[in-house]
Amino acid sequence: MKGLILAGGFGKRLAPLTQERPKPLLEVAGRPIIEWQIEWLKRQGIRDVVIAVGYLRGRIFEEIGDGRRLGVRVMYSVEEEPLGTGGAIKNAEPFLDDDMFVVLNGDIITDIDVGPMVGLLRERGAIGVIALVPLRSPYGIVEVDEGGNILSFREKPLIEGYLINAGIYVFGRSIFKYLPERGNIEETAFPALASERLLLGYTYREAFWKSIDTVKDLEEANKALLGGE
Hints:
Elements: E1 2-7, E2 27-28, E3 31-32, H1 33-43, E4 48-53, H2 57-64, E5 73-78, H3 84-91, E6 100-105, E7 108-110, H4 115-124, E8 128-136, E9 141-144, E10 150-154, E11 158-172, H5 189-195, E12 199-203, E13 209-211, H6 215-226
Parallel strand pairs: 1-4, 1-6, 4-5, 8-12
Antiparallel strand pairs: 2-3, 6-11, 7-13, 8-11, 9-10
């Protein structure tokens, strides 16, 4: 299998950190996000990595090169203009010639094992499997009693019963028939696949997963990795 990293976005919510450096090259615990991702793909048994690049792509070429330094073979799918997540995967089709492949957004750090997703795709004959993780509140919660006494603080508790898209996918090659030339996969291919019962979800409740969208996320990820999570 090959792995595809979607690394072409502008990272506007992380400005000014992303004015001269693309988001995948921002460092967490001393390493660029994209290096954590390549190491994760290697743990899944993947050695052929396609990186979809656009914004400040020259910096990624310089940092990652052909991937030899990191023990993988890297190919680049270049977006001359933003294509959205669906368009970026469609644009990378010439590189993705296996029966199935793994895709991850370029701002995710995780230890999820995609093996169960691969097994589910094969078993059920679907076209795609989405990794799902429990939704956490973006805010800490303070519990008080009737007298106004503070009982406890809960930092970003789980919101029971709700799951979110983890930005990690396993697709069969039939996915390309559903992908737009331009547009986000969440708004185009996913609704169509779901309506045909060809899209599945696999839930990871205990895995480490962090999406880095803001400076606060970057700080939290840094703290978590340096703390051994």
